[in-house]
Amino acid sequence: MTVELTAAPTRPPSKTSRRAGTAARQHIMGWAFVGPFAIVFLALLVAPLLYALYLSLFQNQLIGGERFVLFDNYLKAFTDPDFLDGAWFVIRFSVILIPIQMAISLAMALVLDVVTTAFARFSRLMIFLPYAIPAVIGALMWGFLYSKNFGPLAEIFGALGATAPDLLSRELVFFGLLNIVIWQWAGYYMIILFAALQGIDPTLYEAARIDGANQWQITLRIKIPLIMPALVLILVFALIGTLQFFNEPQILRYLAAGAIPSDYTPNMYAYQQAFALANYNYGSAISFALGAVVFVCVYIFLFATRKRGSFLS
Amino acid sequence: MTTAPLARRGRASRHLPLQILLGFLLVYFLIPFWWVIVNSSKDAAGLFGGGSALWFAGEVDYLGNLIDLFSYDGGIYLRWLLNSTLYAVVGGVGATVLAVAAGYGFAKFRFGGRRIGFSVLLGSVMVPTTALVIPTFIMFSELGLTNTIWAVILPTLLNPFGVYLMHIYARDAVPDELLDAARVDGAGELRTFAQVALPMLRPAIVTVLLLSIVSSWNNYFLPLAMLSDNRLYPVTVGIGQWQGIASANNAGGTSLWSIIILGSLVSVIPLVIAFLTLQKYWQGGLAIGSLK
Question: Could you say which of A132, A203, A233 has the minimum Cβ distance to residue B4?
Answer without folding.
Answer: A203
